């Protein structure tokens, strides 16, 4: 559905490349402009895939073309400007001011290309926070996420993936598509601006709303939920599982499966608010019962009873679980490149997986046509 849309991708590492891969999956011609040394993530090894390429780089760069340009060199900069002038979308995630030094800022590009949709991703905006480094770990810390992640008596913890970058990449995708829709309507381009901190604060949803309403920021609860119980990780005889009870009916069903039906009428546990107030007592009772059998056994009992429950899978198990559900979670490009499929499913114009992540500067010479709108078919098409 995005065939004919050219993206000049000056972004690197994760947030920008994630967004542009999503666009490429739906047909956009994404030209990844890299420095001569390549995107930093090309060098973040191990691990590597079957082709010896960094899996970090490969995770967000399929379906793209790569051109290495030295922006400090006159010829390289001229080529970059020419590409920006012919692109429908320009995306960058340098620190504020860097693109302006090269004459590639939004105001520069729109002089040559009035319809351009220009997406800028920063860590903390272009104002007083412009000089701050936009590292995901730093944003998780100063943005409040670490304060609510981890055990109550332990250290603050980060998410196990660069979650803020991914969230920002998703927001960038939405912003770019919104701006393209407006260009279709009016013919005018515009700048799309995102910052990592803003994306994280938006994603804090109920926790941020609670803080704004009460003036009291929530604290770490480990795997427990501030407003629902039992809604946490529990230990069975062999491994952990999650039980996610969202209402009193589900709790009554849980009590029955555990062989403790009286719990549903106990004044401490009969209503959700009471269960939240007595979560520690309830956890002890539940885990004492769960210790009698394996986690898998309890799942087979809880699911038919209508109690949301699941194993705490590792990532390999999670992918296998999705495959067992028929969700087709793995995208394959070529014979040796596998990545997680695009999560957006469209019935008429689905995502396609045409080419593996490119080698550095792969698309030069015959494969590099900066003024032609359609992407040429590469050797892996």
SSE layout and pairings?
Layout: E1 6-9, H1 15-25, E2 29-34, H2 55-58, E3 64-68, H3 74-86, E4 89-92, H4 98-101, H5 106-112, E5 117-122, H6 136-142, H7 163-186, E6 190-195, H8 196-203, H9 205-214, E7 231-235, E8 240-244, H10 248-257, H11 272-277, H12 279-290, H13 295-302, E9 309-311, H14 315-324, E10 330-333, E11 337-340
Q: What's this entry about, in short?
A:
This protein is an alpha/beta fold and 381 residues long. It contains 14 helices and eleven strands.
And the CATH topology of the largest domain? Rossmann fold
Compute the separation of the termini in Å. 18 Å
The overall pLDDT average reads: 93
The shape, in one word, is elongated
| Unreliable parts | 370-381
Multimeric state of these chains?
single chain
Class of the largest domain, according to the CATH hierarchy? Alpha Beta
Q: Within the largest sheet, what's the order of strands?
A: 3-2-1-4-5-6
CATH superfamily of the largest domain: Crotonobetainyl-coa:carnitine coa-transferase, domain 1
- Let me know the number of strands: 11
- What is the helix content? 25-40%
Overall tally of structural domains: 2
Series of secondary-structure elements, N-terminal to C-terminal: EHEHEHEHHEHHEHHEEHHHHEHEE
Taking all Cα atoms into account, the compactness measure Rg is 25 Å
**Strand share of the residues?**
5-15%
* CATH architecture level-2 label of the largest domain: 3-Layer(aba) Sandwich
Count every helix, treating DSSP H or I runs of 4 or more residues as helices. Answer: 14
Structural class: alpha/beta
- Biggest β-sheet: count, sense, barrel? 6 strands, parallel
């Amino acid at each position: 559905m995005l065939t004919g849309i050219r993206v000049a991708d000056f972004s690197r590492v994760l947030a920008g490349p994630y967004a542009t891969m999503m666009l490429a999956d739906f047909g956009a011609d994404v030209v990844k402009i890299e420095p001569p040394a390549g995107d930093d993530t090309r060098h973040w090894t191990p691990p590597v895939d079957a082709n010896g390429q960094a899996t970090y780089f490969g995770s967000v760069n399929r379906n793209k073309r790569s051109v290495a340009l030295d922006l400090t060199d006159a010829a390289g900069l001229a080529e970059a400007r020419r590409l920006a002038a012919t692109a429908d979308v320009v995306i960058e995630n340098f620190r504020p001011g860097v693109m302006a030094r090269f004459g590639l800022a939004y105001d520069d590009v729109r002089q040559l290309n009035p319809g351009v949709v220009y997406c800028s991703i920063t860590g903390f905006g272009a104002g007083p926070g412009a000089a701050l480094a936009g590292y995901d770990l730093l944003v998780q810390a100063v943005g409040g996420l670490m304060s609510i992640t981890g055990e109550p008596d332990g250290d603050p913890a980060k998410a196990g993936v660069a979650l803020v970058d991914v969230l920002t990449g998703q927001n960038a995708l939405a912003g770019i598509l919104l701006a393209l829709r407006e260009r279709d309507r009016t013919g005018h381009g515009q700048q799309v601006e995102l910052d990592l901190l803003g994306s994280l604060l938006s994603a804090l949803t109920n926790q941020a709303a609670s803080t704004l309403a009460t003036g009291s920021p929530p604290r770490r609860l480990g795997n427990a939920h501030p407003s629902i119980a039992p809604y946490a990780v529990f230990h069975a005889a062999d491994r952990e599982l999650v039980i996610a009870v969202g209402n009193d009916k589900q709790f009554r069903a849980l009590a029955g499966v555990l062989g403790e039906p009286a719990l549903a009428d106990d004044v401490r546990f009969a209503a959700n608010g009471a269960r939240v107030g007595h979560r520690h007592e309830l956890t002890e009772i539940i885990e004492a019962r769960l210790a009698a059998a394996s986690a898998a056994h309890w799942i087979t009992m809880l699911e038919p009873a209508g109690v949301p429950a699941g194993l705490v899978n590792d990532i390999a198990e999670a992918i296998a679980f999705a495959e067992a559900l028929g969700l087709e979670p793995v995208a394959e490009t070529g014979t040796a490149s596998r990545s997680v499929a695009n999560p957006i499913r469209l019935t008429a114009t689905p995502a396609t997986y045409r080419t593996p992540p490119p080698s550095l500067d792969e698309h030069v010479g015959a494969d590099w046509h900066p003024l032609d709108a359609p992407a040429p078919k590469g050797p892996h098409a």
